[in-house]
# Entry
Amino acid sequence: MPRLKPVTDRKPAFAAFIGLLAIYSTTLAPTVTFWDSGEFLAAIHSLGIPHPPGTPLYVLTANVWAHILSPVLGFARSVNLLSAVSAAAGCALFANLLARWTRDPYSGFAAAICAGATSSLWMSATETEVYAPAFFVSALLIWIANEFLETRSNRYLLLLVYVAALGWALHLTAL
# Structure
Protein backbone atom coordinates (compact mmCIF):
# COMPACT_ATOMS: atom_id res chain seq x y z
CA MET A 1 0.00 0.00 0.00
CA PRO A 2 1.52 3.35 -0.96
CA ARG A 3 2.10 5.83 1.81
CA LEU A 4 0.09 9.01 1.59
CA LYS A 5 1.68 12.32 2.30
CA PRO A 6 0.20 13.47 5.63
CA VAL A 7 -1.84 16.63 5.76
CA THR A 8 0.07 19.07 7.92
CA ASP A 9 -2.74 21.57 8.23
CA ARG A 10 -3.77 21.57 11.88
CA LYS A 11 -6.38 24.29 11.46
CA PRO A 12 -9.40 21.91 11.40
CA ALA A 13 -8.30 20.30 14.65
CA PHE A 14 -7.58 23.63 16.31
CA ALA A 15 -10.90 25.11 15.13
CA ALA A 16 -12.81 22.04 16.36
CA PHE A 17 -11.06 22.21 19.73
CA ILE A 18 -11.78 25.93 20.20
CA GLY A 19 -15.38 25.63 18.98
CA LEU A 20 -16.25 22.63 21.12
CA LEU A 21 -14.47 24.01 24.17
CA ALA A 22 -16.47 27.22 23.84
CA ILE A 23 -19.72 25.26 23.60
CA TYR A 24 -18.84 22.95 26.47
CA SER A 25 -17.67 25.84 28.67
CA THR A 26 -20.91 27.70 28.04
CA THR A 27 -22.98 24.68 29.07
CA LEU A 28 -20.63 23.48 31.83
CA ALA A 29 -22.28 22.27 35.01
CA PRO A 30 -21.45 24.76 37.78
CA THR A 31 -21.54 22.20 40.58
CA VAL A 32 -22.39 18.55 41.23
CA THR A 33 -24.62 16.72 38.75
CA PHE A 34 -26.48 13.41 39.05
CA TRP A 35 -25.09 9.89 39.21
CA ASP A 36 -21.37 9.51 39.97
CA SER A 37 -20.35 13.15 39.90
CA GLY A 38 -20.55 13.70 43.66
CA GLU A 39 -18.68 10.49 44.39
CA PHE A 40 -15.93 11.45 41.94
CA LEU A 41 -15.66 14.97 43.35
CA ALA A 42 -15.31 13.62 46.89
CA ALA A 43 -12.71 11.07 45.78
CA ILE A 44 -10.80 13.71 43.80
CA HIS A 45 -10.83 16.16 46.70
CA SER A 46 -9.66 13.60 49.27
CA LEU A 47 -7.52 11.49 46.89
CA GLY A 48 -9.83 8.63 47.73
CA ILE A 49 -10.98 5.64 45.74
CA PRO A 50 -14.32 5.86 43.92
CA HIS A 51 -16.39 2.78 43.16
CA PRO A 52 -14.77 -0.23 41.45
CA PRO A 53 -12.78 -0.53 39.30
CA GLY A 54 -11.31 2.67 40.69
CA THR A 55 -9.79 5.36 38.53
CA PRO A 56 -6.46 6.31 40.10
CA LEU A 57 -5.02 8.28 37.18
CA TYR A 58 -8.25 10.24 36.79
CA VAL A 59 -8.40 11.03 40.49
CA LEU A 60 -4.77 12.20 40.58
CA THR A 61 -5.00 14.22 37.35
CA ALA A 62 -8.25 15.88 38.38
CA ASN A 63 -6.85 16.65 41.84
CA VAL A 64 -3.83 18.46 40.41
CA TRP A 65 -6.01 20.20 37.80
CA ALA A 66 -8.45 21.33 40.49
CA HIS A 67 -5.71 22.63 42.78
CA ILE A 68 -4.49 24.84 39.92
CA LEU A 69 -7.89 26.15 38.77
CA SER A 70 -10.15 25.96 41.83
CA PRO A 71 -9.01 29.29 43.33
CA VAL A 72 -10.48 30.96 40.24
CA LEU A 73 -13.34 28.65 39.22
CA GLY A 74 -14.24 26.72 42.34
CA PHE A 75 -13.55 23.04 42.88
CA ALA A 76 -16.49 21.40 41.09
CA ARG A 77 -16.45 23.74 38.09
CA SER A 78 -12.71 23.30 37.63
CA VAL A 79 -13.02 19.50 37.57
CA ASN A 80 -15.96 19.82 35.18
CA LEU A 81 -13.71 21.93 32.95
CA LEU A 82 -11.21 19.05 32.83
CA SER A 83 -13.92 16.97 31.19
CA ALA A 84 -14.65 19.75 28.68
CA VAL A 85 -10.99 20.13 27.71
CA SER A 86 -10.57 16.36 27.42
CA ALA A 87 -13.59 15.91 25.17
CA ALA A 88 -12.67 18.87 22.96
CA ALA A 89 -9.08 17.61 22.66
CA GLY A 90 -10.28 14.12 21.73
CA CYS A 91 -12.51 15.54 19.01
CA ALA A 92 -9.59 17.66 17.78
CA LEU A 93 -7.48 14.52 17.38
CA PHE A 94 -10.25 12.93 15.34
CA ALA A 95 -10.55 16.09 13.24
CA ASN A 96 -6.84 15.86 12.49
CA LEU A 97 -7.09 12.19 11.57
CA LEU A 98 -10.14 12.58 9.36
CA ALA A 99 -8.69 15.60 7.59
CA ARG A 100 -5.58 13.54 6.84
CA TRP A 101 -7.45 10.42 5.77
CA THR A 102 -9.93 12.22 3.52
CA ARG A 103 -7.53 14.98 2.45
CA ASP A 104 -10.35 17.40 3.18
CA PRO A 105 -9.95 19.72 6.17
CA TYR A 106 -13.65 20.64 6.11
CA SER A 107 -14.77 17.04 6.52
CA GLY A 108 -12.38 16.60 9.45
CA PHE A 109 -13.76 19.70 11.13
CA ALA A 110 -17.39 18.73 10.43
CA ALA A 111 -16.90 15.20 11.73
CA ALA A 112 -15.31 16.47 14.93
CA ILE A 113 -18.13 18.94 15.55
CA CYS A 114 -20.76 16.25 14.87
CA ALA A 115 -19.02 13.79 17.20
CA GLY A 116 -18.62 16.45 19.89
CA ALA A 117 -22.28 17.40 19.64
CA THR A 118 -23.61 13.91 20.34
CA SER A 119 -25.59 13.84 23.54
CA SER A 120 -23.50 11.20 25.30
CA LEU A 121 -20.18 12.97 24.69
CA TRP A 122 -21.65 16.39 25.41
CA MET A 123 -23.06 15.22 28.75
CA SER A 124 -19.74 13.65 29.71
CA ALA A 125 -17.91 16.82 28.66
CA THR A 126 -19.86 19.11 30.96
CA GLU A 127 -19.74 17.23 34.27
CA THR A 128 -17.33 15.45 36.57
CA GLU A 129 -17.14 12.08 34.90
CA VAL A 130 -14.27 9.86 33.78
CA TYR A 131 -15.66 9.20 30.29
CA ALA A 132 -14.41 12.40 28.63
CA PRO A 133 -10.78 11.84 29.69
CA ALA A 134 -11.14 8.17 28.67
CA PHE A 135 -12.45 9.35 25.29
CA PHE A 136 -9.39 11.58 24.95
CA VAL A 137 -7.03 8.69 25.73
CA SER A 138 -8.86 6.47 23.23
CA ALA A 139 -8.55 9.16 20.55
CA LEU A 140 -4.89 9.62 21.45
CA LEU A 141 -4.27 5.89 21.08
CA ILE A 142 -5.81 5.90 17.60
CA TRP A 143 -3.82 9.00 16.63
CA ILE A 144 -0.54 7.46 17.85
CA ALA A 145 -1.32 4.18 16.04
CA ASN A 146 -1.89 6.15 12.84
CA GLU A 147 1.44 7.94 13.32
CA PHE A 148 3.13 4.57 13.72
CA LEU A 149 1.51 3.22 10.56
CA GLU A 150 2.58 6.27 8.57
CA THR A 151 6.15 6.52 9.85
CA ARG A 152 6.96 2.96 11.04
CA SER A 153 8.95 4.62 13.80
CA ASN A 154 9.39 2.47 16.88
CA ARG A 155 9.08 5.51 19.11
CA TYR A 156 5.36 5.70 18.23
CA LEU A 157 4.97 2.02 18.99
CA LEU A 158 6.59 2.51 22.38
CA LEU A 159 4.42 5.58 23.02
CA LEU A 160 1.34 3.55 22.05
CA VAL A 161 2.16 0.88 24.62
CA TYR A 162 2.87 3.50 27.29
CA VAL A 163 -0.38 5.43 26.73
CA ALA A 164 -2.35 2.17 26.62
CA ALA A 165 -0.88 1.23 30.01
CA LEU A 166 -1.82 4.64 31.38
CA GLY A 167 -5.32 4.24 29.91
CA TRP A 168 -5.90 1.19 32.08
CA ALA A 169 -5.19 3.29 35.18
CA LEU A 170 -7.56 5.98 33.92
CA HIS A 171 -10.59 3.85 33.11
CA LEU A 172 -11.16 0.49 31.48
CA THR A 173 -13.09 2.09 28.61
CA ALA A 174 -9.85 3.73 27.45
CA LEU A 175 -8.63 0.29 26.42
In short: The chain has a mean pLDDT of 88. Residues 21 and 85 are 6 Å apart (CA to CA). Residues 75-102 form the longest helix (28 residues).
